[in-house]
Design goal:
Layout (H helix, E strand, L loop, with lengths): L1 E3 L2 H9 L4 E4 L4 E4 L5 H11 L8 E4 L14 H4 L7 E6 L6 H4 L4 E6 L3 H10 L3 E5 L11 H8 L5 E3 L11 E4 L5 E3 L1
Helix pairs in contact: 1-5
Length: 182
């Protein structure tokens, strides 16, 4: 396992199917290439999270996730700007089940975090994003905690600062506006 501040190394790792940890708006996230089924399943195994729960994708630009989603309404288009809120959108039937789980939707955040944005821009893709912890445990808030808690089960950690949020991002339904996670 590598701890680095070099985003190029992180992107090279993602291209090779790596599981990475990286700072997000409130906690460290675990991520991988959302189109790499074996990487996603390995990430879920590391986290001890069932595939049926579905996952969040983070991105720098909404165009990086449109291939998974049904066409948006005008109201939903207003939600596609960088924010600290994750929105749930209706997924295409062709969206991978390893991302959607038991749902016909997908959670997406167009991130404001500069390191998340830079990874996604250089990788030219969204990333899977789930908190860097085992299911039921507290999420890590720095690279050292990730290394201590997850050790050699992941491939690389991007050392950087998390954002200012006190708790993980709010999740809202993009159609009803209902809060799923406050």
């Amino acid at each position: 396992m590598v701890i680095t501040k070099d985003i190029d190394k992180i992107v090279e790792g993602l291209q090779q199917g790596y599981i990475i940890a990286y700072p997000t708006e409130a906690v460290y996230g675990l991520g991988c290439d959302p189109d790499n089924e074996s990487a996603v399943l390995r990430l879920l195994e590391i986290k001890q999270r069932p595939v049926n729960k579905g996952l969040i994708l983070v991105t720098a630009d909404f165009s990086q996730v449109e291939k998974y989603l049904k066409p948006l309404t005008e109201q939903q288009h207003k939600l596609t700007q960088p924010s600290e809120t994750t929105y749930i959108y209706p997924a295409l039937d062709s969206a991978p089940a390893w991302l959607t789980g038991d749902f016909n939707s997908l959670a997406v955040r167009v991130s404001k975090h500069p390191l998340v944005r830079e990874i996604c821009l250089q990788f030219n893709s969204a990333l899977v994003s789930t908190s860097a912890n085992l299911a039921g445990e507290e999420p890590a808030k720095n690279a050292q905690q990730v290394s201590l808690n997850l050790g050699d089960s992941i491939d690389a950690i991007l050392d950087g600062e998390i954002g200012d949020l006190v708790k993980p991002t709010e999740i809202r339904d993009s159609i009803s506006g209902q809060i799923i996670r406050a």
